[in-house]
């Protein structure tokens, strides 16, 4: 499929500039799948729900030795679904995926007394390749690699039926790709019970005991295992497992459908196609600003879901859009001051098929900026082209790309400091994340932020937009786990993730406040933190400004103890924290988030 280039910097209005997914024009456009993918007919939807109490992390297990689990050779394959790829690259797509009747990847039950679980993953964003029963209530699972690759196994999302309430089940995924994971620090999988949702209004919740993450067998030294035990809440239930709250391409289209049908919000939001994906799914662009033209307004560009397995980024984006399109006085001010260009789902194909990291090009789109061709990475290419057009007409004050992180808790940012700029510019790079940490002290960890521009990250959206001339260009990383910054450590809920949107908007107003007090205070605070990190004595005259970013992030001569500055009506109130509650060993490269 050859995408058609569209002018994405066009006018605003209450009308849609593409064929909108509105009730007036019939049902939502169905997602397009590669023709190799089988897709079941049922529509999978989940209710939103927030637990009444925080969900604490389970006891951390660290990197465990292999559990005494039977191998799949000693069990019975009860589910096996793997697309029969026609070659090593994507060729064509159609609504509904593979034509013809569906196969039966799950073995049939022998009768009502058969307790074998029934697995299914052939639905939007689903991922499970194989399930092997190795005991009465124990299953060894294999994830499907990203399509047209042999790697990137992290995201899982599958359905289970024929449950029993009393037994303790164990599930072990044997081909996780990353050597380090938050599952070793107390992260639990999510469970969704259809019966609880229908009867009690209870949605996704954290479950699992004996959660372990460990290196695989000697035969598969590069694979890692995730294992957990769980009791299902009901007999005969339909349940789902996932690592983070799913947010599908159809979820986005339903959201845009409701937006188009809302006469108030659609007055200042225009939706059009940025481009079409390889499979022909629309990559949507939202332009949000108050009516009356763009003269004198600066721009803000925001994107999400370059990596399909990082669904937390979509929930943060949802909160951002909810607030920005609301009647809140700050939202009205933001729309008067700025033109927002928002791409809520850069990689819809990857989201549809349940990939962890790649598009249907079989490569990571967030390493393709600068070299991408429109025929290979249409979303990336057209986003970059749109930003270039906007920059030719107005200043872009901020770019922010929403992602998820599987190895570090809390929320944090990656920025751009090449080391060659002036000390003032290098300080200003760090002001926005510091302000966000003040507005979200229970979620955002400034010590976890990094600003080094590594050679391996040159193809990211963050670095590419910075190279185009957007001085403040960031990746927002949202942990798969939760926060360690409050009184108790606990998992993020959907509401926690959505709350990041208003917090980001609030920080944008602080950052662009004509009154300089907050900005100047943050500049001074960042300077003090960097001096402290380098061990510079106050008044010594020594400086950090000639130190390269990699050394700044690798040296902890003094434990970083940021002072927390609270905004208040009386002015700035400084409270010194005795120690940092977050961060990581910055001498170790983060690698791929």
UniProtKB/TrEMBL annotation:
Cofactor dependency: Zn(2+)
One GO cellular component, as annotated: cytosol
Keyword Cell cycle (UniProt): no
Keyword Cytoplasm: yes
Chief localisation class: cytoplasm
InterPro entries (UniProt xref): Cytosolic_carboxypeptidase, Pepdidase_M14_N, Peptidase_M14
GO MF, any single term: metallocarboxypeptidase activity
Localization per record: Cytoplasm, Cytoskeleton, Cilium basal body; Cytoplasm, Cytoskeleton, Microtubule organizing center, Centrosome, Centriole; Cytoplasm, Cytosol
Stretches the record annotates as Disordered: 1-30
Keyword annotations: Carboxypeptidase, Cell projection, Cytoplasm, Cytoskeleton, Hydrolase, Metal-binding, Metalloprotease, Protease, Zinc
Domain Peptidase M14: residue ranges: 245-512
Biological processes annotated in GO: proteolysis
Active site: 477 (proton donor/acceptor)
Catalyzed reaction equations: (L-glutamyl)(n+1)-gamma-L-glutamyl-L-glutamyl-[protein] + H2O = (L-glutamyl)(n)-gamma-L-glutamyl-L-glutamyl-[protein] + L-glutamate
Superkingdom of the source species: Eukaryota
Family from the record: Belongs to the peptidase M14 family.
Name this polypeptide is given: Cytosolic carboxypeptidase 2
Organism: Calyptomena viridis
């Amino acid at each position: 499929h050859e995408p058609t280039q569209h002018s994405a910097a066009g006018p605003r209005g209450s009308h849609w500039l593409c064929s909108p997914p509105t009730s007036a024009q019939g049902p939502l456009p169905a997602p397009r799948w590669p023709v190799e993918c089988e897709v079941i007919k049922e529509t999978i939807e989940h209710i939103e729900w927030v637990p009444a109490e925080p969900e604490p992390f389970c006891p951390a297990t660290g990197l465990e030795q292999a559990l005494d689990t039977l191998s799949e050779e000693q069990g019975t394959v009860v589910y096996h679904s793997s697309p029969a790829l026609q070659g090593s690259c994507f060729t064509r797509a159609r609504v509904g995926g593979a034509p013809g009747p569906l196969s039966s990847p799950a073995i049939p039950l022998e009768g009502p007394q058969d307790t074998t679980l029934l697995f299914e993953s052939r639905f939007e964003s689903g991922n499970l390749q194989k399930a092997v029963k190795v005991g009465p209530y124990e299953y060894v699972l294999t994830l499907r690699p990203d399509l047209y690759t042999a790697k990137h196994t992290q995201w899982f999302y599958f359905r289970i039926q024929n449950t029993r309430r009393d037994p303790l089940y164990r599930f072990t995924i044997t081909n996780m790709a990353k050597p380090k994971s938050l599952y070793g620090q107390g992260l639990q999988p999510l469970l969704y019970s259809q019966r609880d949702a229908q009867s009690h209004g209870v949605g996704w919740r954290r479950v699992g005991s004996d959660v372990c993450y460990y290196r695989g067998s000697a035969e598969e030294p590069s694979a890692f295992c995730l294992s957990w035990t769980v009791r299902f809440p009901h007999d005969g239930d339909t349940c789902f497992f996932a690592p983070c709250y799913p947010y599908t391409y159809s979820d986005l289209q339903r959201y845009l459908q409701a937006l188009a049908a809302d006469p108030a919000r659609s007055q200042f939001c225009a939706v059009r196609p940025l481009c079409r994906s390889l499979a022909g799914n629309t990559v949507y662009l939202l332009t949000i600003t108050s009516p009356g033209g763009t003269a004198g307004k600066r721009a803000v560009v925001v994107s999400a879901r370059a990596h399909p397995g990082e669904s937390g980024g979509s929930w943060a984006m949802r909160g951002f859009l909810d607030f920005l399109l609301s009647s809140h006085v700050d939202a009205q001010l933001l729309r008067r001051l700025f033109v927002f260009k928002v791409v809520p789902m850069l990689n819809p194909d990857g989201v549809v098929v349940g990939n962890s990291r790649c598009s249907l090009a079989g490569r990571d789109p967030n390493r393709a900026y600068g070299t991408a061709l429109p025929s290979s990475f249409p979303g990336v290419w057209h986003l970059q082209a749109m930003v270039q057009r906007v920059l030719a007409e107005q200043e872009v004050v901020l770019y922010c790309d929403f992602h998820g992180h599987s190895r570090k808790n809390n929320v944090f940012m990656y920025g751009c400091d090449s080391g060659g700029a002036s000390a003032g510019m290098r300080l200003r790079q760090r002001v926005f994340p510091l302000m966000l940490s003040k507005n979200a002290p229970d979620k955002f960890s400034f010590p976890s932020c990094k600003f080094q521009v590594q050679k391996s990250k040159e193809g990211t959206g963050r670095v590419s937009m910075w190279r185009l001339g957007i001085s403040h260009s960031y990746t927002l990383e949202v942990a798969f786990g939760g926060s360690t910054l409050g009184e108790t450590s606990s998992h993020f809920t959907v509401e926690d993730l959505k709350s990041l949107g208003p917090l980001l908007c609030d920080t944008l107003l602080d950052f662009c406040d004509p009154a300089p007090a907050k900005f100047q205070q943050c500049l001074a605070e960042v300077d003090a933190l960097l001096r402290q990190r380098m061990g510079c004595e106050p008044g010594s005259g020594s400086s950090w400004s000639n130190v390269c970013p990699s050394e700044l992030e690798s040296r902890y001569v003094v434990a970083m103890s940021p002072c927390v500055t609270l905004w208040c009506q009386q002015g700035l109130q400084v409270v010194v924290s005795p120690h940092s509650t977050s961060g990581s060993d910055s001498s170790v490269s983060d690698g791929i988030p």
